[in-house]
Amino acid sequence: MSPVKTLSPLSPDTRDTDDAAQKPSRRRFLQSAAASAAVAAAPLASTARAQQQAATPAVAPPVTSAPTMPVKLTINGHPYELQVEARTTLLDALREYADLTGTKKGCDRGQCGACTVIAGGRRINSCLTLAVMHEGESITTVEGLAPGGDALSPLQRAFIEKDAFQCGYCTPGQLCSATALIDEYRAGDASAATADVRFRPAQLSDDEIRERMSGNICRCGAYPNIVAAVKFVASSQG
């Protein structure tokens, strides 16, 4: 009968079993560390969210519209009474309130001339002036250049015959500016290109027309035809 084998506390087999039970694995250590970090960070995250919510400013109430005021204008021979804000430009008043969209908004900085209209007999950039500044004044836009609203004006016909436009966006301003230009020439107004400002030139030269139309930009580059159209009308009407 073989003897019963008894393991002592110091035997190698016992030590290996105890060490395996007592020594934690690397995976278990990392899991424990991550759990501890999450528990520690939870109160800090809650505090940070509470502080952020407290620091968020309240939403400002919507800004109410500015008060309006009546402005009486005579546009293309018709009386208008528009209710506009004091800061409304004449250009926006014509387009947005009077529904006369022939006048174009180009640069909105007075540099391109697309918004040119005739106010009180002189041409202006309607984007650079306020509607309230023209109370009681007579305004002519491109819609009012044709006599009676049916037949085209001489300049409008000349622009078509001389092919003085391409895309047409600047054309309303070009037409208003050229109309006022011819009136200024007939009244004896000089320009920087006038040889002797004491006398009106016998006729509008190309240089005179280019100088007087220099505030109107054509991005299509139809300048030679625009000059030809203005010169044709000016010379035919005297």
Note down, in words, how this protein is organized.
This protein is of the alpha+beta class and about 240 residues long. It is built from 7 helices and 5 strands. It has helices at about 10-20, 25-55, 90-95, 155-160, 170-185, 205-210, 225-235, and strands at about 70-75, 80-85, 115-120, 120-125, 140. A 5-stranded mixed beta sheet has the order 2-1-5-3-4, with helices on both faces. A hairpin with a 2-residue loop joins β3 (about 115-120) and β4. α4 (about 155-160) crosses α7 (about 225-235). The chain is elongated, with a radius of gyration of 41 Å. Residues about 1-10 have low confidence and may be disordered.
Would you tell me the overall average pLDDT? Answer: 84
Shape, please?
A: elongated
> What is the count of helical runs?
7
Rg for CA atoms? 41 Å
Query: Which sheet architecture does the biggest sheet show?
Result: 5 strands, mixed
Q: Examine the coordinates and then state which fold CATH places here, giving the name of the CATH topology of the largest domain.
A: DNA polymerase, domain 1
Kindly report how far apart the N and C termini lie.
147 Å
CATH class group of the largest domain: Mainly Alpha
| Oligomerization status of the protein chains | single chain
Would you count the extended β strands for me?
Answer: 5
CATH homologous superfamily grouping of the largest domain: [2Fe-2S]-binding domain
Q: Strand fraction band? A: 5-15%
The low-confidence runs, each spanning 5 or more residues with pLDDT under 50, are 1-12
Architecture of the largest domain in CATH? Orthogonal Bundle
- Major β-sheet strand ordering: 2-1-5-3-4
Number of spatially distinct domains: 2
Order of helices and strands: HHEEHEEEHHHH
What is the SS-derived class?
alpha+beta
